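To the wet lab folks,

You asked to see what we're planning to order before we commit. Fair enough. Below is the target structure as tokens, and below that is the sequence we designed to fit it. If anything looks off to you, flag it before the synthesis order goes out.
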């Protein structure tokens, strides 16, 4: 969410949320969890609902219905990978053995056709290459879309714990990650105080 605002040079405020207070107000937090976005008359919860709203608002949904569908598909694919990543962080506590199994299942290019629940970095690599209009810099079309921001985010998470493996196995994804990281607005956000240093609640990853 913050990455989207940064890419569009839009100022935003992050308000700390008291866990107990959140649980006590289901009228504000229908699923009793964050994030929640308040944007004028719109009050939105659920991460992907927020991202799709922002994609529509800031024209990050492609130029036509074909591209919008492609954006949605890539967002869902990224979400599948994110779920596996979160299991590694919160359930497996990033234990060395679990980390090795994770890379073998969801990162190793040789296992892309295996049983991985559709969650594999190789799939992202193929999709990036398939979009010739993006020249390795965009997953959909030739300009920045929400698909790119979501892909960047999940690649950024993986680069923190699989940095060398990612660069060696997927130089195309590493180049894409570097491209988005250098975009005006994004570059400043990544280097600034609004970016959370500890991306996970248990300080792993």
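Sequence we intend to order:
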């Amino acid at each position: 969410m913050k990455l989207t605002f940064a890419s569009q040079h839009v100022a935003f405020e992050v308000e700390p949320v008291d866990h107990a207070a959140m649980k006590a107000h289901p009228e504000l937090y229908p699923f009793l969890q964050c994030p929640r976005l308040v944007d004028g008359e719109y009050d939105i919860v659920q991460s992907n609902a927020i991202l799709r709203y922002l994609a529509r608002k800031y024209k990050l949904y492609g130029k036509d219905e074909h591209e919008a569908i492609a954006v949605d598909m890539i967002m869902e694919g990224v979400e599948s990978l994110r779920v596996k990543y979160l299991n590694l962080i919160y359930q497996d506590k990033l234990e060395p053995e679990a980390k090795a199994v994770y890379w073998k299942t969801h990162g190793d290019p040789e296992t892309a056709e295996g049983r991985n629940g559709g969650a594999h970095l190789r799939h992202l690599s193929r999709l990036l290459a398939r979009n010739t209009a993006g020249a390795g810099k965009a997953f959909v079309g030739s300009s920045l879309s929400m698909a790119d921001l979501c892909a960047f985010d999940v690649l950024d998470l993986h680069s923190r714990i699989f940095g060398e493996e990612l660069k060696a196995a997927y130089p195309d994804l590493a180049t894409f990650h570097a491209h988005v990281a250098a975009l005006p607005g994004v570059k400043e956000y990544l280097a600034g105080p609004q970016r959370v240093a500890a991306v996970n609640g248990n300080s792993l990853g």
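Structural context that might help your review: The chain has nine helices and two strands. The two ends are 19 Å apart (CA to CA).

Thanks,
Computational group
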